[in-house]
Amino acid sequence: MMQTSLNFLKKGEWGRVVRLDCDKEISRRLLELGVTPNTLLYCIRWAPMGGAVEVRLRGFSLALGYNEAASVLIEKEGG
Amino acid sequence: MKKLGLIGNPNSGKSALFNTLTGSDARVGNWPGVTVERKEGIWEKGAFLCIDLPGVYSLSPYTPEERATAGFILDEKPDILLQVIDTTALERSLFLTTQLLELDIPLVIGLNMVDVAKKQGIFVDATRLSEILEIPVVEISSITGEGSGNLAKSLHKTLEKGRRGETVISQDKIWARIQPLMQPFFQGTQGLFCGMRWLEQQEKFDWEGEIAAARYEFSVFCCQEVVLQRFKKETPTEKLDKLFLHPLLGIPIFFICMALIFHMTFSLSFLGTGIPSPGVFFRDGAEYGVKLLGDVTMSFFPQMPYWGRIFFMDGIFGGMGKAISYLPQILCLFFWLVFLEDSGYMARVAFLLDRPMRKLGISGRAFLPLLTGFGCSVPAMMSVRTLERESSRKITRLIIPFFSCGAKLPLYALLVGLLFPENGGLIMFCLYCSGIFIAVFWAIFLRKRCFSGQEASFIMEMPPYHLPRWNNIMRTLGRRGKEYLSKAATVILGASVIIWLVSHITLDFQMTNDSSLSILAWIGQGLTPFFIPLGFGSGACGWKASAAILTGLAAKEAVVSAITVLGGPEEMFTRASAISFMVFHLLSIPCVAAVSAFWCEEKKGKTLFFALCLWLSTAWIVSFLVYQIGRLIEIAF
Questions:
Q1: What is the pTM of this model?
Q2: Are B461 and A63 inside 8 Å of each other by CB?
Q3: CATH for A60
Q4: Pick the CATH number of B2-229 from 3.40.640.10, 3.40.50.12500, 3.40.50.300, 3.90.440.10
Q5: Which ipTM was obtained for this model?
Q6: Which residue would you say has higher pLDDT here, B187 or A35?
Q7: Residue A29's domain spans which residues?
Q8: Where are the domains of chain B?
Q9: pLDDT for B6-55, tens place per residue?
Q10: CA B508 to mean position of chain CA atoms
């Protein structure tokens, strides 16, 4: 399966978190919000002009900026 | 009295529960990070001292709110903790629970928003959850207060038992590796908790990631056991978001909403019908009321001497009364802003605007603090704390005063109503926009010049929409109104009286009717050279405008009082100089309260000095340009 990052996930696609690639400040926030390895993410939508992305995980919606999304490495899941 | 700490994720309803239990009026809203300072209140007839803490996702000591919350637990040693959980986000909330369970403090869980979860087809087995966690789990409603009786009973029972911290990851393979490392901590107070925190801070090895994963594994296990998802249907939030976050319509809808709000508050002709908009209608009513009150009061004292009569009519009813009569209009504006915030729409706006705002070096999260700035700069400066980066926080604080606060509004309303009666709403909208424009300019400049390198970040939970609660809106408006009135009765009254006195006493302490001979004229005269290039410092009345702008440092509302006491704006301004005056008023140094809030947050003399220079010079330069251009237009037509 191909490894990519969250900012390549299109609306309606699923991805599984592989690891986080960012500084501590940001990774802490992401970890405590539940973006831990193996978490399944569903891409709900992108903000207009490809700004922020809204993903669903662990029963809630999380909005991430473009750079933060780029630092979440994922594997796309089929279906 | 037992200390009860209310803890939980941002936007889980802690403050709403706190208000319901203690009957207080803490600010609540549908936006993660509304509470930035802890609040205290009494519950159960003095059995508990409730402490409402800022919302956190974890207890790691990194952001200011987390530090405050963890610091509270370690230093003030609450007797018991109540974790408020948003039932619809159980899995995420249990992460914090796994940390709280490591404390040597009794813990009770309050499941909030059970009704919302049920509507989404989610059922949570509270009994089973309580068995797994081995602590009481109570269903509560933070809005109606349902279940608070049960809650009190569980709290009392749990208090008797006490607690020794235990960790849920003791079953995980990671435990065998980390337990020996934490041995030295186990002797001390809160040993387990402190040990874990120490581990998570180690840079050499990424314990933090592994521990977080283990905690979430436990949380997933709990949810599998206790959550019963009946059906999956499209929630109202998803339906609404299809419209409000539409790729093409999303941003236009936001601007239309904002334009409508301004129209409803400031337009003299509502929707083109010729009838005043609600905001203007209420203001006119209040103005009439204040005038009537003045006349009636005076009629009780027919014997009052001449100077006393003038003092009451011009100084008090004219000065303070004028400021008070704008209160309804300000509340009209806030009504809609609070309405949108409480519904959860503002979080969507942050999402929509993240990209443009990031270009300015601040993230979409800065949107609410900036919007709060339209209300009052003081809470806005404080709520900046919830932003992730230091550079974002500093830039945001520097530009907050350019977001015209509610206290600056009376002056615009006064001048626009008088000099631009046909298109008041438009001018007002342009004023607010120009403030935003200047803020944008400075944000870009500061990011390029002073804080390059660090990117702003945007990580934010998107709360589900809910119907704004009438009580909540009214409480917020009531609090604002109370603040405004108490300011009117103290600072503005004081300023009005002083202005009246110094404008009616001459330099050799004689009463005079000719204010151009007064002490104030002398002070204002000294300031005029500074303001002549801006248009409102010249002429026979130049000193009046100069003196009026000075009073704005005490409170921005006082400028209106000063103008009224000094004889009204008719003789002071031309159209061009009025706009220049308003622009200066909008951009210059904010009131003392806002400056001291800035100081409390930044705590650096150099930064404060820089900020004051930035605000003052911006105001002067922009007003100068506005006046010069305006004058050319005036001459041309």
A1: 0.78
A2: yes
A3: 2.30.30.90
A4: 3.40.50.300
A5: 0.92
A6: A35
A7: 3-77
A8: 2-229
A9: 999 988 888 889 988 888 877 777 677 677 777 888 888 888 999 998 88
A10: 47
